[in-house]
Amino acid sequence: MKYANYVCLAIALPSLSVNAEQTNQRAPIEIAKLTQAPIIDGNITASEWRDAAVIEQFVEFRPNLGDTPLYPIKAWVAYDESYFYVAAEISQPQQSITDRVLTQGDNIWNEDYFGITLDTNFDKRDAYLFHVSPSGVREDGLIDGTQYIGQWSTIWYAKTQRTQNGWSVEMAIPMQSLSFDPSKSDWGLQLRHKLSKPYKQIYWNVNDPSNWGWTAPQVGKITNIHGLTQGKGVEIKTGLSFKDNQESSKWTPSLDAFYKFSPNITGVLTLNTDFSGTDVDEVDINMTRFSQFFEEKRDFFLQDSQVFSFGDFSNYDHNGMPFYSRRIGQGPQSGVLDIDWGTKFTGKVDGTSFGVLSVNQEKDGSVDDTTQLSVARVKQQLGQHHQVGAIITDGSADGGDNSGLFGVDYRYENSIFGDQQIRAYAWYQETEKQHHDDDTVAYGAQITLPNDKIYASAIYRYLGEDFNPALGFVNRNGINYYEWVSHLRHRPKTGFLSNYINYYQVNYNYFQRNDVDNNWLSKMYTIRPMRIQMKDSSVFQIQYDARTERLKNRYAMGRRIGFAAKDYHFDQWSVFYQTSTNQSVFGNIKLTTGEFYDSDRQEVLAELNYKPNKHVMLQLSRNHHYYAQSVLSENMYSTRLKANISFNEEWSWNTMIQHNTRSDNLSIFSRLRYQSAPDELYQVSINKGYDLEDGWHQRQSYFDEKTIKVNYINRW
Q1: Helix, strand, coil abundance in the chain, percent, nearest 5
Q2: Angle, alpha carbons 79-85-90 (nearest 5°)
Q3: How far apart, in whole angstroms, are the C-alpha atoms of residue 525 and residue 546?
Q4: Distance (Å, rounded) from C-alpha 211 to C-alpha 512?
Q5: How many CB atoms within 10 Å of residue 95?
Q6: What is the largest CA-CA distance in the chain?
Q7: What values do phi and psi take at 216, rounded to 5?
Q8: Coil, strand or helix: which one is 497?
Q9: CA distance linking residue 511 with residue 219, whole number of Å
Q10: Cα pseudo-dihedral 391, 396, 401, 405, rounded to 10
Q11: Is it true that the peptide bond before 469 is cis, omega within 30 degrees of 0?
């Protein structure tokens, strides 16, 4: 899976008054337009790159800001009318290179890599990310104002070579894979090298030392970009899949057609959409009373998905989200629903971003009928610090009436106290009413200081009792929600500790939910007196949680244990340790002990990874929950085994087995994958699900599907 689920990705903002000398801001660089394209083979020759801009000014960003990089880096940057080019030579001993991934699409964040952030509008608000490992495995993603979207992918090219002095990389990014304003000659660029042994983050440009270096606000200016072309702007993605399941066996063609009306406006048409090649979800035990959130993984919805973001909701903070694309193509009654056709129109003109999406799909509960689901979003930038937006959704999976939503939001970002960033949001939403006195409104505000040393965030939200957007995500409505999250982090620069510690920090967080009349429902505060990241990137932390919960109805957590409707006060301690990820065996473990309502609670959450080389990756995770209440006890666990075998750069075999005793099911997903080029993909997969309520020997199959899928992409 592309997304690195173990990495906490923070969002940085433009620094408006930071001392350039102190932060290693670079002067603008004029980029040359090449008359002859370099051959992208990883072999950097002087003749191919002689006209390119040369960059050798790199600086260590983490752990020691301002240090000279341990290993020298030399980069070349250029473009022609059809491609943006980057090359780099990293001089380091071969034995110091961490490179254990071979399959395209696998996770490279634990490896060494070289990459770029590319801001084609130079507004420092959204950008593209392209990274390459020493074996040539590519990682791409998007940044918008609130989140990193690692599931997004596009066509681009990269090759690497091991050299006598280290390794080299050449990259070519098609202009057709980017959106940009052809009237703007200034773009934003960041160059980045990550070293695993020892752990170091190296960057070309640093605008703000208190925030993450890979984000759009950290880019430097590159100039003289002009005369670009995207050809005819047409991309056709054809697909053919064979599905054999419990209901039918059939061949199904599919088509996704993209057309660039202009370099920054894209139209998409999808016909007979097929998502059979999408990765399955990793599902852990849900120990709450509320539904879980799962990230979007389908290419059609990920394309330009940052346009539809609203109010700083993200994959980490989602209750009240007005548009959740996984509501499309799924229904609570029928499960997966076929999509007949869909359209999407997205773009950016000057300071205005917009997106319109409409899908015709099977109707939940009546698959012989169809229903239309639509969303429209617009965001307008007002000067450098302000943005306003609006969103409208219409339709529901079951075709029900009163399924529309309207919302508006506002974003403010600036710097205060010289170099400290500040970000603020406010939003309002309302869904259609079924009855005159329905409470269908929701609104919220938040203010955040998203800085490395001092981080603070305050959030307030109100979700009415009848606020339930048909195309959004709400797992708890009828509440007033209050949140405070903060940390104080110190990075020792000198002395004994600086030899061993990257940083240590303390956290204080507080969460409270009240009902619509502001009577409390739950309260929790978290104190993390110690979180330490060592020089090898290993992490250790201790945490204390204290909770107060008011149950209005009995909560049956498992088969034996339940909790009566009354007030509860309980607490717990936990310790967490994550090893360095640059070794062949690595992992993490979290131990929790304390109370859960009126039961005693012990939990063990553990993950073990084995990467002996770039051909094999094994991962075993186990979440074990034990609860004891008087003479009763409840023992629940989930187990996940992942095995990724890379035969070579083109062939791979991925398997995931998941077992969950709370839901009494076991699932098996296995896929053989052949990708000969970025625009060709062949897959054979098996997806099985079993109900184990009566034990393994009496298991009942509830899902069984075999799939063969072929995809080709053509561009003109």
Answers
A1: 5, 55, 40
A2: 140
A3: 6
A4: 28
A5: 6
A6: 80
A7: -60, -40
A8: helix
A9: 35
A10: -10
A11: no
Here the tokens at position 400 are 């029900």
CA gap 241, 252 in Å, rounded:
5
Alpha-carbon span 354 to 378, nearest angstrom: 4
Distance CA 716, CA 713 (A): 10
For residue 386, list its beta bridge partners. Answer: 382, 412
**DSSP code string of 269-321:** EEEEE--TTSPPPP-----SSS--------HHHHTTGGGG--TT-BTTB-TTB
Residue type, 705: E
CA 698 to chain centre: 39
- Which string of DSSP letters, residue by residue, matches 179-229? ---TT---EEEEEEEEETTTTEEEES--S-TTS-TTSGGGPEEEE------
Q: How far is CA 473 from CA 233, 267, 424, 495, in A?
A: 35, 26, 22, 49
Give the H/E segment covering residue 47: helix 46-49
Tokens of 227: 């005369």
Q: Which residue has the tokens 């000969």?
A: 676
Residue 136 backbone zone (phi > 0: left; psi -120 to 50: alpha; other: beta): left
Helix (H, G, I), strand (E, B) or coil at 365: coil
Give the pair of three-digit tokens for residue 504.
């240590």
Q: CA neighbours within 13 Å on the CB side: how many for 282?
A: 16
CA 136 – CA 644 distance, rounded (Å): 17
Residue 480 contacts residue 516 (beta carbons within 8 Å):
yes
Tokens 């090893």 locate to 579
Distance (Å, whole) CA 702 – CA 692:
10
CA 375 to chain centre: 21
Angstrom distances, CA of residue 327 to CA of 275, 323, 337, 638, 652: 14, 8, 10, 26, 31
Burial class (CB in 10 A: 0-12, 13-18, 19+), 83: buried
Distances (CA, A) of 584 to 129, 579, 609: 27, 11, 8
Two tokens, residue 88: 């780099």
Give mean pLDDT in consecutive 10-residue pieces for the chain, a chain of 716 residues.
35 37 76 92 91 92 86 94 95 91 85 93 86 92 72 88 93 92 90 91 84 80 92 90 86 90 90 76 82 83 85 82 91 85 91 93 87 95 92 92 92 80 93 92 94 92 95 94 95 86 95 95 96 93 97 85 93 96 93 95 95 93 92 90 92 94 91 89 93 87 91 90
For residue 123, the 8-state DSSP code is S
Q: How far apart are CA 115 and CA 198, in angstroms?
A: 18
Six-digit token string for 168:
């080299």
Q: Is 114 helix (H, G, I), strand (E, B) or coil?
A: strand
Alpha carbons 507 and 650: distance in angstroms, whole number: 45
8 Å CB contact between 310 and 442:
no
| Total number of residues shown for the chain | 716
CA angle (248 as vertex; 242, 252 as ends), nearest 5: 30
How far apart (Å, rounded) are the C-alpha atoms in residues 255 and 257?
Answer: 6
Nearest residue to 287 via CA among 527, 694, 592: 592
How does DSSP classify residue 664?
T
